[in-house]
Specification:
five-stranded mixed β-barrel; 42% strand; Immunoglobulin-like; six-stranded mixed sheet; OB fold (Dihydrolipoamide Acetyltransferase, E2P); 16 strands; 2 helices
C-alpha cells in the first residue's frame, strides 16, 4: 500500500482547535506494507495526557484487533494523547509478539481525533456551544469500537476556533431510543467565524453504557444547503483503508 502522509494535530479537549503541525519534509519516509485504520488508545492507569513517545499503551482498532506499538516514529514523540482517545493510525506490522495483543506494530504516522462525550440538552441548558445551530456537513459516520465517529466539512478561517458537539436533545418529543432508533443532533458553533475556505474535521463520541437497546442511530445536522438526516447501523463496520484515504484527502484540512 502506498505511503500515507498526514498533517499532525494536537488536540484541545472540548474544542476544535484550528492549528496545524506539519512534518519536516526532510524527515519524510516511505514505509513498505503500510496500513491505515481508526483506533482507540488503551492506557489504563494513566492520568491525563501523555506524550506518544512515552509508549506503554495499546491500540484497539474498529474491527476489534488489538495492536501494541512496539516502535513509534521519532517525529511523533511529543504528540500528546490520553486513555480512550481516538486516532487515525498509519502503521506497519512487526514480526514479534506481545501477550494479549493480536499484533505488534510500528506507528509510522497518526492523527489524534477530537474525542468527547455526548451531551444532554434540556430546557435548563444554557451552554451556548450546545445550543448553537451553525451550518456543517456530515461526510461520513459509523460506529467503531463502541464510538460514534463523524467526518465533517465546515467553513473556517485561519486562527479561528470552532466547537463541535453531539447532543441528545430532550427538548424534542423524541423518546430515545424510539423503535430501536436512537436520535441525536450534531451541532456546530462557528464562534462568529464567517469562514474563508472549506475544512475537514474528525470527532468521536463514546456510546454511553446506559444508552439503551437500539439497532440504528439517526443523526441530524444543519447542512450547508439542506438539513441532513444521517442514519447508521449500530453494528456497522469501520471504513476500509481505501475509503479512509478518501476521507483524509482534503488540501484545506486544518484540524
Amino acid at each position: 500500500m502506498e505511503r500515507i502522509k498526514f498533517l499532525l494535530s494536537l488536540l484541545c479537549v472540548g474544542t476544535l482547535c484550528l492549528t496545524m503541525i506539519s512534518c519536516d519534509n526532510d524527515d519524510d519516509k516511505y514505509y513498505v506494507n503500510s496500513w491505515i485504520g481508526f483506533a482507540t488508545v488503551n492506557a489504563p492507569g494513566t492520568t491525563g495526557e501523555f506524550p506518544v513517545g512515552q509508549g506503554g499503551f495499546g491500540l484497539t482498532f474498529d474491527d476489534g484487533t488489538k495492536m501494541w506499538p512496539r516502535m513509534i516514529d521519532t517525529r511523533l514523540a511529543q504528540v500528546r494523547t490520553f486513555d480512550k482517545q481516538r486516532m487515525i493510525v498509519d502503521f506497519t506490522y512487526l514480526n514479534d509478539t506481545k501477550e494479549g495483543y493480536d499484533h505488534t506494530i510500528c506507528v509510522n504516522n497518526l492523527r489524534t481525533i477530537l474525542t468527547k462525550n455526548i451531551a444532554t440538552v434540556n430546557n435548563s441548558t444554557t451552554d451556548a456551544h450546545l445550543l448553537a445551530n451553525d451550518k456543517i456537513r456530515i461526510v461520513n459516520a459509523w460506529v467503531g469500537d463502541n464510538y460514534i465517529n463523524i467526518v465533517f466539512d465546515y467553513s473556517a478561517s485561519p486562527g479561528s476556533t470552532h466547537y463541535i458537539n453531539l447532543i441528545d436533545d430532550q427538548r424534542t418529543p423524541v423518546t430515545n431510543p424510539d423503535n430501536g432508533v436512537y436520535s441525536l443532533t450534531f451541532v456546530h458553533d462557528a464562534n462568529n467565524d464567517t469562514g474563508t475556505y472549506k475544512a475537514r474535521g474528525y470527532v468521536s463520541f463514546p456510546i454511553p453504557e446506559n444508552i439503551g437497546q437500539f439497532t440504528k442511530i439517526k443523526i441530524f445536522a444543519k447542512g450547508e444547503s439542506t438539513d441532513q438526516e444521517f442514519i447508521i447501523e449500530y453494528k456497522n463496520t469501520s471504513p476500509t483503508d481505501e475509503s479512509i484515504l478518501k476521507l483524509i484527502d482534503n488540501t484545506n484540512e486544518i484540524l
